[in-house]
C-alpha cells in the first residue's frame, strides 16, 4: 500500500471544455428540454448551472470579488447545502430567460478562462474553498481543483446521458474523477469503529478503476492506493456504479445488489454511505 497523493487535474479542464462544447453545439431544440438525473433540471438548466459555477469561481477566486454574505446562519453542513441549493436555484430560474445559443457562447467564454486560471495556481498552497464532503475545513489547491473537475465532469455526464451522447469514461479522464471521489472514504468511515490495523479494500473494476484501501490507525481511517495485505473486508464494484453511488445517482439498495463483499459485511456495507458531492 502507498498513502494517497495529490491528484493533478488542472491540465484536463480544457479537454473537458472542448468535449462539452462539441455536445452542446450539436443539440436540437428538443434536446435542451430533456430531463436529466438532476431532476427537475433539464439539459438547459444543468448547462446554466455549469456556467454559474464557472462565473462564481472566476469572479470570487481569480478576480477577488467579495463573496456576498449568506442570507441565513450557516452553522452546519446541512445549512451550507441548503444555502447552496437556494442560490443554485436562483441562477437556474433566471437563466430560463436566456437562449440556449447565448448560454453556449457564455460557457465557451468562461470555460477556457477557468482552465487557464487553474494552471496558474500553486497546487500545494491553501485552497480558496475547502472540500467539505471530505470532512475538510481547509484544503489544498490540488484537492479544490480536483473537486471542481469532478463537478464539471459530472454535470457534463448528466447532459450526455440525457441526450444519448457517449459518456466520459476515458481512463485518463475518469480515473482522476474516481480517485477524487474516493477521498471521501476516511470521512465516510469516520464513525465506524474497528481495531487498529483493520483494513478494507475497495476494488473498482473497469479501465478507469483501481484498488484503494482503508486502514484503521490510531482511532482514525487512512486511505491508501493498492491492496491491504490482510483485509478484514474486500469490496468489488464496477466503475459506473462507483461514480453513481458517490453522486446519489443510484440507490444504496441497487448499489448493494451490484457489489461483492468478502469478509466482514458490516465494514463492507459502510461503502454505501459514500457521498462525494454537497447534497
Structural description of this entry:
The protein is an alpha+beta fold and 279 residues long. It is 48% helix and 12% strand. It is built from 11 helices and 6 strands. The chain has a 6-stranded mixed β-sheet with strand order 1-4-3-2-5-6. Helix 1 packs antiparallel against helix 5 and helix 1 packs parallel to helix 6. The protein is globular. The two termini are 31 Å apart.
Short characterization:
The chain is an alpha+beta fold and 279 residues long. The chain is 48% helix and 12% strand.
**Helix percentage:** 40-55%
Mean pLDDT, all residues? 96
The value of Rg in angstroms is: 19 Å
Order of strands in the sheet with most strands: 1-4-3-2-5-6
Q: Give the biggest sheet.
A: 6 strands, mixed
Q: Which regions are unreliable across 5 or more consecutive residues at pLDDT < 50?
A: none
Number of strands: 6
Order of helices and strands: EHHHHHHHHEEEEHHEH
Task: Estimate what percentage of residues fall within beta strands.
Answer: 5-15%
Structure annotation, total helices:
11
N→C terminal distance: 31 Å
Class inferred from helices and paired strands: alpha+beta
Amino acid at each position: 500500500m502507498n498513502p494517497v497523493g495529490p491528484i493533478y487535474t488542472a491540465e484536463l479542464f480544457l479537454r473537458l471544455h472542448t468535449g462539452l462544447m462539441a455536445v452542446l453545439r450539436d443539440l436540437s431544440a428538443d434536446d435542451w428540454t430533456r430531463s436529466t438525473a438532476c431532476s427537475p433540471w433539464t439539459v438547459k438548466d444543468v448547462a446554466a448551472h455549469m456556467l454559474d459555477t464557472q462565473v462564481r469561481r472566476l469572479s470570487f477566486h481569480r478576480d477577488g470579488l467579495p463573496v456576498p454574505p449568506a442570507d441565513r446562519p450557516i452553522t452546519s453542513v446541512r445549512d451550507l447545502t441548503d444555502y447552496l441549493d437556494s442560490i443554485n436555484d436562483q441562477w437556474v430560474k433566471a437563466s430560463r430567460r436566456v437562449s440556449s445559443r447565448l448560454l453556449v457562447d457564455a460557457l465557451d467564454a468562461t470555460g477556457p478562462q477557468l482552465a487557464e486560471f487553474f494552471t496558474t495556481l500553486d497546487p500545494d498552497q491553501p485552497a480558496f474553498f475547502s472540500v467539505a464532503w471530505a470532512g475538510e475545513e481547509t484544503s489544498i489547491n490540488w484537492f479544490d481543483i480536483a473537486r471542481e473537475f469532478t463537478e464539471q465532469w459530472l454535470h457534463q455526464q448528466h447532459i450526455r446521458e440525457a441526450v444519448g451522447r457517449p459518456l466520459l469514461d476515458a481512463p485518463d479522464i475518469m480515473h482522476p474523477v474516481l480517485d477524487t471521489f474516493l477521498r471521501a472514504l476516511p470521512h465516510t468511515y469516520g464513525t465506524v469503529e474497528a481495531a487498529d490495523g483493520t483494513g478494507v479494500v475497495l476494488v473498482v473494476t473497469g479501465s478507469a478503476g483501481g484498488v484503494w484501501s482503508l486502514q484503521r490507525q490510531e482511532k482514525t481511517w487512512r486511505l491508501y492506493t493498492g491492496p491491504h495485505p490482510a483485509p478484514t473486508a474486500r469490496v468489488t464494484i464496477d466503475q459506473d456504479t462507483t461514480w453513481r453511488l458517490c453522486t446519489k445517482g443510484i440507490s444504496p439498495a441497487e448499489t448493494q445488489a451490484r457489489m461483492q463483499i468478502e469478509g466482514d459485511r458490516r465494514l463492507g456495507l459502510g461503502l454505501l454511505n459514500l457521498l462525494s458531492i454537497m447534497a
